[in-house]
């Protein structure tokens, strides 16, 4: 018998969904022992999914911002947080001035680093969500589905996004 990990052997590895309130999540010490702990673990998974949806919105807005494109149909001033000032100038929330098109150009290393940082966090969160679903625990899987739904409603509602 080949062992996959100290927790589960290949014969014990579930290949179908199962219901249990004591399935470990991520590490052996994160094993709910009560129904309250299990519910809190499911709530954590839901929150991870909401954060994941939020990061997807941030990534889209950064792509528009740093690529200097307004082709998505979203209001450019809303995306950039710009507001008009005297003389036709625009100023974004960080105080950077922009003359002309209503957007600041922040291409280059700074923009690439910010986009890469957001992408790394998004991939990490997505990986944690995938691992939760791969436990084959019905409650964890339904938490992923519910969290994605709630995240779509909460995070993307005011963004005019068609990502849901």
UniProtKB/TrEMBL annotation:
GO MF terms held by the record: copper ion transmembrane transporter activity
Top-rank lineage group of the source organism: Eukaryota
Keyword Hydrolase in record: no
Membrane-protein topology: Multi-pass membrane protein
Compartments, as annotated in UniProt: Membrane
This protein's UniProt keywords: Copper, Copper transport, Ion transport, Membrane, Transmembrane, Transmembrane helix, Transport
Name by which UniProt lists this protein: Copper transport protein
Biological source species: Cladosporium halotolerans
């Amino acid at each position: 018998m080949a062992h996959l990990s100290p927790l589960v052997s290949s014969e014990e590895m579930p290949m179908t969904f199962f219901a249990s309130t004591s399935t470990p999540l991520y590490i052996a010490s994160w094993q709910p022992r009560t129904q309250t702990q299990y519910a809190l673990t499911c709530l954590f998974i839901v929150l991870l999914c909401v954060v994941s949806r939020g990061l997807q919105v941030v990534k889209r807005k950064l792509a528009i911002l740093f690529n200097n494109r307004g082709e998505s149909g979203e209001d450019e001033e809303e995306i950039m947080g710009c507001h008009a000032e005297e003389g036709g100038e625009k100023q974004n929330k960080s105080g950077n001035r922009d003359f002309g098109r209503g957007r600041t150009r922040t291409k280059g290393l700074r923009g690439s680093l910010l986009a890469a940082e957001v992408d790394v966090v998004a991939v990490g969160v997505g990986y944690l969500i995938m691992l939760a679903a791969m436990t084959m625990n019905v409650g964890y899987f339904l938490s992923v589905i519910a969290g994605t739904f709630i995240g779509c409603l909460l995070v993307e509602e005011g963004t005019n996004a068609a990502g849901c």
